[in-house]
């Protein structure tokens, strides 16, 4: 049998700032060719673990990690976000530094570009990495790992920002490649189709106790078994508790009767007193046995559940009222014409999504529509950009973003909301820069509610939510009583939360009946 490509033994992760334990005693073996997925709620240490596996120096300064780590072969790492230092590099400079593009054969470059659905000329472009679409950046990063011919790929949210055809390619690649892959993903469809092993990181008991589970099985099998085991444990715990309560009632009845008899016994019946003392001794012995039995009862199952706020009254959009009547003759990015004759009309309370290949201008169009909508005085629009940094100041605290005027009553309300969404007191005091992508997305959801928005303009709204939170997020957005205009590559979101899907083409928007296939 071949040696494992990755072996972890007794790994512990301690977050330096709050001395919070994120991970405790993780043991994991990933075999050659295996596809293992790390899942868990936002802020549970998934990205920290993946960074440490690749290069322990990447977590220095914010996390203490102990345990054994053994990697076989050459590892390639795809970060969740392109580092700021790389955003100002040209594509050519980035490719040259990452995989020495000038030393590679044209055949290798053409094959990789075709796999990714890119033009080979992009590899030599002077365009800055930061100006590319999110999907183009991810494709180029994946391309460098393929061109480096790594043995094990460590991918942090590889499906983020990929268009639907490239997501299909990514699934096919993961299924067909002989390379070993350990990846983090929030895409339930990707997990269902590709994961052979699940590494589940949790924080239970109000996020005070870490728990990790390694299951060598597909995602759906793991989730079904987990749900079944929890339901069985819940039934057993409730049955045992019901039986215990009956025993306790009988014990209290006997105990009360004996105590009452002791209080009322005649002083002239000393033998009766001795008998009652013996009975009380037996009753107390029974009480001690019940205390021990209570400690051994099956515990109710503990798990992390997605907790999201509810829409408040006043966020609905009148049926039939025009929410958007937009026409754009030309959509451009610099001197490049991306599309023309774009017309979009929405009435309340429609939910519309835009799809299209990476780089076709979806986010650019969405931003222009937002600029158009924000001038309206008869609606309350809210914009959620793909790059949260456009709205969030990284050094401010969550409550500062939610209540910029510092009103005491509003701050109390905001902190109550944050607490209900499982933010710890410490996390409420952290600067936004230290929050996970999912925690930042939750902040934006709260901001929509506090502003009572009735027209949401959302760029990839589900991209940073875990597969455990995502179903609740999709339901929340499906039930939003106002209008939603969104850009998304999330197939389940398009299926469950959207009324109409349009594809952006060079000739404008066209209905996309098969966009979710």
Summarize the structure.
The protein is α/β, with parallel strands linked by helices.
List the helices and strands and how they pair.
Blueprint: E1 6-15, E2 20-30, E3 35-40, H1 46-54, E4 63-71, E5 75-78, H2 84-87, H3 91-99, H4 106-116, H5 134-148, E6 152-156, H6 164-176, E7 180-184, H7 188-194, E8 197-204, E9 209-215, H8 219-264, H9 270-295, E10 322-333, E11 336-347, E12 351-355, H10 362-373, E13 381-384, H11 398-402, H12 408-420, H13 425-429, H14 437-450, E14 455-459, H15 470-478, E15 483-487, H16 491-496, E16 500-505, E17 508-511
Parallel strand pairs: 3-7, 3-8, 5-6, 6-7, 12-15, 12-16, 13-14, 14-15
Antiparallel strand pairs: 1-2, 1-4, 8-9, 10-11, 16-17
Helix pairs in contact: 3-5, 4-5, 8-9
How would you describe this structure in keywords?
16 helices; 23% strand; six-stranded mixed sheet; alpha/beta
Describe the structure.
It is a single chain. The chain is of the alpha/beta class and 517 residues long. A hairpin with a 2-residue loop joins strand 10 and strand 11 (336-347). The chain has 16 helices and 17 strands. Helix 3 (91-99) runs parallel beside helix 5, helix 4 crosses helix 5 (134-148) and helix 8 packs antiparallel against helix 9.
Largest sheet, strands/sense/barrel: 6 strands, mixed
Strand order of the largest sheet: 5-6-7-3-8-9
* Percent range of helical residues: 25-40%
Shape: globular
- What's the helix count? 16
Report how far the terminal alpha carbons are from each other: 39 Å
Strand coverage percent: 15-25%
Structural class: alpha/beta
Determine Rg (CA atoms, Å). 29 Å
Counted beta strands: 17
């Amino acid at each position: 049998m071949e040696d494992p490509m990755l072996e972890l033994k007794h790994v512990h992760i301690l977050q330096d700032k709050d001395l919070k334990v994120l991970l405790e005693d993780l043991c994991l073996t990933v075999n050659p060719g295996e596809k293992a997925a790390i899942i868990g709620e936002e802020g549970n240490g998934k990205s920290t673990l993946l960074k440490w596996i690749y290069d322990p120096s990447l977590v220095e300064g914010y996390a203490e990690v102990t345990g054994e780590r053994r990697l076989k072969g050459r590892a390639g790492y795809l970060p969740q976000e392109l580092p700021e230092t790389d955003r100002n590099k040209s594509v050519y400079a980035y490719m040259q530094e990452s995989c020495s593009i000038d030393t590679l054969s044209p055949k290798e470059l053409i094959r990789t570009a075709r796999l990714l659905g890119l033009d080979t000329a992009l590899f030599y472009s002077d365009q800055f990495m930061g100006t590319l679409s999110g999907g183009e950046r991810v494709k180029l990063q994946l391309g460098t790992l393929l061109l480096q011919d790594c043995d094990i790929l460590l991918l942090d949210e590889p499906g983020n920002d990929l268009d639907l055809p490239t997501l299909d390619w990514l699934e096919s690649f993961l299924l067909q490649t002989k390379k070993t892959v350990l990846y983090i993903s929030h895409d339930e469809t990707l997990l269902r189709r590709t994961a052979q092993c699940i590494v589940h990181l949790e924080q239970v008991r109000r996020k005070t106790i870490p728990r990790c589970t390694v299951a060598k099985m597909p995602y759906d099998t793991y989730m079904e078994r987990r749900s079944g085991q929890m339901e069985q444990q819940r039934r057993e715990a409730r049955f045992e508790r019901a039986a215990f309560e009956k025993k306790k009632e009988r014990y209290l009845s006997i105990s009360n009767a004996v105590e009452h008899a002791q209080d009322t016994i005649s002083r002239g019946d000393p033998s009766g007193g001795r008998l009652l003392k013996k009975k009380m001794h037996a009753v107390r012995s029974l009480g001690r046995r019940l205390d021990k039995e209570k400690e051994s009862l099956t515990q109710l199952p503990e798990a992390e559940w997605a907790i999201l706020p509810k829409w408040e009254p006043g966020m609905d959009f009148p049926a039939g009222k025009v929410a958007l009547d937009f026409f754009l003759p030309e959509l451009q990015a610099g001197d490049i014409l991306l599309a023309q004759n774009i017309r979009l009309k929405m009435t309340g309370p429609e939910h519309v999504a835009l799809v299209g290949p990476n780089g076709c201008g979806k986010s650019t169009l969405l931003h222009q529509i937002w600029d158009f909508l924000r001038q309206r005085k008869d609606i309350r629009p809210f914009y959620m950009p793909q790059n949260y940094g456009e709205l969030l100041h990284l050094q401010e605290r969550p409550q500062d973003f939610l209540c910029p005027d510092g009103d005491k009553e509003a701050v109390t309300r905001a902190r109550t909301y944050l607490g209900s969404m499982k933010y710890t007191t410490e996390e409420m005091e952290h600067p936004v820069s230290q929050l996970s992508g999912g925690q930042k997305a939750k902040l934006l959801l709260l901001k929509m509610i506090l502003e009572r928005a009735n027209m949401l303009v959302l760029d990839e709204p589900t991209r940073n939510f875990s597969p455990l939170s995502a179903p609740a997020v999709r339901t929340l957005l499906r039930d939003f009583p106002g209008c939603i205009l969104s850009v998304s590559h999330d197939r389940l979101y398009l299926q469950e939360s959207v009324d109409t899907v349009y594809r952006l083409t060079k000739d404008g928007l066209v209905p996309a009946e098969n966009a979710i296939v």
